[in-house]
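Marked as duplicate of an earlier ticket. Keeping the data here for the record.
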Amino acid sequence: PASPTDFAPATAPVLLTAMTAAAMTSPAMDPAEAGRESGRRNLSFAVIGAGMSGILSSIKLREHGYTDITIYEKADGLGGTWRANTYPGVACDVPSVLYSYSFAPNPEWSHRFAAGAEILDYLEGVATSNGVQESIRFGEEVVRCDFVDGRWHLETSLGAHGVVDVVIAATGVLHHPALPDIEGLASFGGRTAHTARWDPTVPIDDQRIGIIGTGSSAIQMVAAIADRVQALSLFQRTAQWVMPQENPAYTEEETRVFRDDPAVMTTLHEDISEMFANGFSNAVGDAESDGMRMIEAACVANLEDSVADVELRERLRPDYRAACKRLVVSPDFYSAIQHPNAELVTDSIQCVEPEGVRTVDGRLHELDVLVLATGFRVDRFMRPMEVVGPDDTRLSDLWARRPTAYMSIAVPGIPNFFMLNGPNGPIGNFSLIEVAELQFAFILQLVDRIRSGECSLVSATTRATETFEATRVEAAKKTVWATGCRSWYLDDRGVPAAWPWTFQRFREVMAEPNVDDFHLTG
């Protein structure tokens, strides 16, 4: 959902040919023994999650010469967010060319901003091209990781066990749906569905639909179904700023150029990345920046130019600064909410009854379908999985108050355990695919130190983690997210739980690990 996506590595055929020739001319050798003879450890990996980051992890590990990889995926298919979210209108608010792996440009994107199904097709295609599925154990959720005698011992929901040297947690952020605490919700007599667990059998056409929530998922769905339903009620607790953004289709000529000259797509990816970083991404990090003022002006103009009815316009006008909450991007929400069949409901919900939703003014909004577009529990990450490090160091204890991590990648006291898009990362302002690629390149440099024999264990130091967190919290005070609104960006202290600096700074710190910030032992 818009909540702010390759081809076989050139070395793979060469490696395969070399391995085959060696097998034909030499006696079989134990892998561990081969590793000792070469002076390098043959490491084994568990990748938790087969979404965008898990697919990336598998490809990059193999490209780097690691072959002992198991991916654990709790669902029955890959794709993560884009597998789970299939509600009408689901799409990405990052340009398609940028929401792609840098090493797997896709000349077939149909629009500037891709729909969810198209992104899932892309991820499945990249995984197939690289043989990722062969390493995935579908329907197996990792429920526990114990660090015993220098290695991670994993237990899955099926009762299976595995032992590996390194764990890569690619579990993502937006995968635990948040359910609203509304009296009588379970009593509704029609169909109820959360956008993050959409049931395709839920009827839409000619139905009376109620949507609770006004985040990106709700806005996308309103725009997608307003002209299909008998009646649509959008229950708004908080108004949202909406950034106007057209979504033109790529022409056949553009697609032909993309197919014929991959360098064009590479250049376009780089150009859009720079434009995205120097525009929106960096603007939100400084609430008083000129870029932020331009974004606000565009949002205000979009509202005032698009909504004719003065009373409706004012009910749609937020009382906080644009982008304080995650900015909604939509070319057609305002026209959809003005559809004759649509109604914006701003009276608070009192309760849900078998016939529909009753608001505090006493009105019963009769419904056939109730949609919960109420977002995610963004502080969960890999939880409820239990992670137990050396000396019984438990992640659940370390994160009892709130999740924290060094550079969103590593947790002190939990060695050889790395996260992609973990706590306090750039979830709110950068392309998560680009973020994951930079993070994984960083992680690989640490893992290579283990393979080389320089050390056996790598973990972030407490000092470095605490210093990073203190600096981050101070910098977060200057972001637009801290200007006075309630949003999922804020932690239990009201502090934005995201990377508060520029994308250029993120690139710089991800370029090479500072060895002094890590314990390299063994």
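See parent ticket for discussion. Residues 107 and 260 are 9 Å apart (CA to CA).
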